[in-house]
Structures are given as structure tokens and as C-alpha cells.
């Protein structure tokens, strides 16, 4: 059996950590090593990690000074011994066949990376998938980068099953946000085959006001640097899918815009509006872009007031979603 290294970066998540670790401990795939990286937690998270590593032989805990998500993942990767590595965020959890299912797909299709649908979960309630028909698709490296840019099946999240020799080539950038976007397209470009399944086996914990409550920090703008590097890479390596990379640049602006308008950062908004203007017609006339995203781009081009209104509506929808569950 292939050895799979599961890396869990841990920082101040004592309320969620046990559910995450338990979901990995009880996998129906036997050959798993679990690496818990306590990234300088100030709550009981480090103690919880130690308890698991004392109880289970396949669990290792590493304590380090706080380096952020990237630094914790890099430490875990450096200590991994597996044929494959899987990153699981410590406030999320996975199905009990998460590893075995992905290994089955990796071996069947000789895949370098396997992605399964990530399901957003509000208040611990897992979506019902009992009536969903399984659909498995394979992608070349170019097709995978293209899909990552549009994000309709899988996006830039590093929470995938990845061959370790690929993951070690591309460490996550320490001290920067949106670290997955900085490296995932590079990893995908190394692949001969990428496999995706539409059956969700990774559960991504959502909190109704998580985005809107984030305070704007200029560090959030590093996502624009990541997408510029992505565009340069795509133009050089796969010029016929440049439209996808341009769309990704526009899309990330729509994602950070709620923080900008709610912080009343009008100077930053003006800069982002100008950048969106450079992408707008390319995005609007791209048949692969869904209308709701075209509208979000248009709202930013129309001005601060429209963007503020759209942000308030989005917040109201997310808040209602959280209360219903």
C-alpha cells in the first residue's frame, strides 16, 4: 500500500481540532502517517496534538514558533515520508474513506494529483449526497490549470492528494496570504494526469460572517501579485488559455472587495476598479464565465456605491445561510 502523509497545520483551533484529527485517525486506509504541526498556538491546541501523538503510533506532533499556514505546511512537507501528501486544514474534516477513495483514483488513472469536491458546511451539517451520481474526470496539466482558474470543479486549494515529489518542489510562500494560489498552478503543471471526482469527501467549515468580519489589511493585496505571476506563467506556457488566467485576476478582486468597501478604503477601491477595468471586457465576453461573476465584475466598474450595496447583499445572504442550518 502506498504511504500517505497527512499534514495538518494547527493554530488556535481547540474547538475544532479533535473532529479534524478523529476524521483522519479513523480512515479506512491503513497506511497513513499524520503530521500535526502546532504553529505556536496559544490555546490548548498544542496539548491536544500531543495527546494524539502519545496515543497513536502513526501520529507525530511538531511544535514550532508561529510562521503562519505556509510555514506550518512547509514543516509538515519536510517531515513527510509518504508517496503522496494530503493537506487538511485543522478546522475542517474529511470522510472516513477520504484517503482510500483518492488512492483508488490515483492508481486507476496513474494520476499525480487527485481532487475531490470540497463541500461547504454550515454549523456542522453535512450536505446530503445520497442521490448524487458519481462523475470522475481526468485532466492534462494544461486542462487542469485552466480548470483551476475557472474553479467550477476544483480551484487553487492545496487540500488535494498530491505526489510528494511534486509538493516538495513548490514550498508555500511564508508570510504571504492566499498561499495556495501561489503554488497550485505550478504543481498542476508538473502533472501528466489530474483526476477530479464530484463526490464530496472534504468538508470545509464555513462561518456565516467569516469574510465580512475580516479587517482589511494591505497584505490581502498580495493576491494580486499571485494572479499576475499566474498570468505570466500561463502566457508563457499555455498561451491559448490566457483568458482563464485573466478571469482569475478579475475573480480575486471580487473576493477581496467586501473587505475593501467595508473598511471604506476608497483609494484602494479606486486602484482595484482601474485594474478591473483592464479585465472587464475580456471577462464579460468570455462564454465560460458564469453571468453572476460577470455581474460582480460590472458592479465594481460601476463604482464604490454599487460595490458597497452588493457587499451588503452578499453579507445578508451568507448570514441567512448560517442561521438556517
Number of helices: 12
Instruction: Find the count of extended strands (DSSP E, 2+ residues).
Output: 9
Structural class: alpha/beta
Strand fraction:
15-25%
Helix and strand run:
EHEHEHEEHEEHEHHEHHHHH
Overall average residue pLDDT: 92
* CATH C-level name of the largest domain: Alpha Beta
Biggest pleated sheet: 9 strands, mixed
- State the CATH architecture of the largest domain: Alpha-Beta Complex
Q: Kindly, what is the distance between the CA atoms of the first and last residues, rounded to a whole number of angstroms?
A: 39 Å
Provide the number of structural domains.
2
Radius of gyration: 20 Å
Low-confidence segments, given as residue ranges, are 321-325
* CATH homolog superfamily of the largest domain: Spore Coat Polysaccharide Biosynthesis Protein SpsA, Chain A
Amino acid at each position: 500500500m502506498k504511504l500517505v502523509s497527512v499534514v495538518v497545520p494547527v493554530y488556535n483551533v481547540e474547538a475544532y481540532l479533535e473532529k479534524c484529527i478523529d476524521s483522519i485517525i479513523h480512515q479506512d486506509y491503513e497506511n497513513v502517517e499524520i503530521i500535526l504541526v502546532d504553529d505556536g498556538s496559544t490555546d490548548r491546541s498544542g496539548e491536544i496534538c500531543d495527546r494524539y501523538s502519545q496515543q497513536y503510533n502513526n501520529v507525530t506532533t511538531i511544535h514550532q514558533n508561529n510562521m503562519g499556514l505556509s510555514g506550518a505546511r512547509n514543516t509538515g512537507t519536510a517531515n513527510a515520508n509518504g508517496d503522496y501528501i494530503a493537506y487538511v486544514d485543522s478546522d475542517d474534516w474529511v470522510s472516513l474513506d477520504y484517503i482510500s477513495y483518492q488512492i483508488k483514483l490515483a492508481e486507476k488513472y496513474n494520476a499525480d494529483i487527485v481532487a475531490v469536491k470540497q463541500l461547504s458546511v454550515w454549523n456542522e451539517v453535512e450536505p446530503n449526497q445520497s442521490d448524487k451520481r458519481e462523475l470522475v474526470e481526468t485532466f492534462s496539466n494544461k486542462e487542469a490549470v485552466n480548470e483551476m482558474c475557472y474553479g467550477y470543479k476544483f480551484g487553487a486549494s492545496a487540500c488535494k492528494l498530491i505526489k510528494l515529489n511534486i509538493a516538495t518542489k513548490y514550498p508555500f510562500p511564508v508570510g504571504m496570504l492566499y498561499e495556495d494560489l501561489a503554488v497550485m498552478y505550478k504543481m498542476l503543471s508538473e502533472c501528466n494526469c489530474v483526476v477530479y471526482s464530484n463526490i464530496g469527501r472534504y468538508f470545509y467549515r464555513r462561518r456565516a460572517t467569516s469574510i465580512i468580519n475580516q479587517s482589511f489589511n494591505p497584505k490581502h493585496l498580495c493576491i494580486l501579485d499571485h494572479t499576475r505571476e499566474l498570468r505570466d506563467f500561463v502566457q508563457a506556457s499555455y498561451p491559448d488559455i490566457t483568458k482563464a488566467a485573466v478571469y482569475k485576476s478579475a475573480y480575486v478582486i471580487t473576493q477581496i472587495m467586501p473587505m475593501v468597501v467595508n473598511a471604506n478604503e476608497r483609494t484602494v477601491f479606486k486602484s482595484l476598479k482601474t485594474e478591473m477595468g483592464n479585465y472587464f471586457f475580456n471577462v464579460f465576453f468570455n462564454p465560460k464565465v458564469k453571468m453572476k461573476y460577470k455581474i460582480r465584475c460590472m458592479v465594481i466598474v460601476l463604482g464604490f456605491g454599487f460595490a458597497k450595496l452588493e457587499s451588503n447583499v452578499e453579507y445578508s445572504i451568507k448570514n441567512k445561510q448560517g442561521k438556517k442550518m
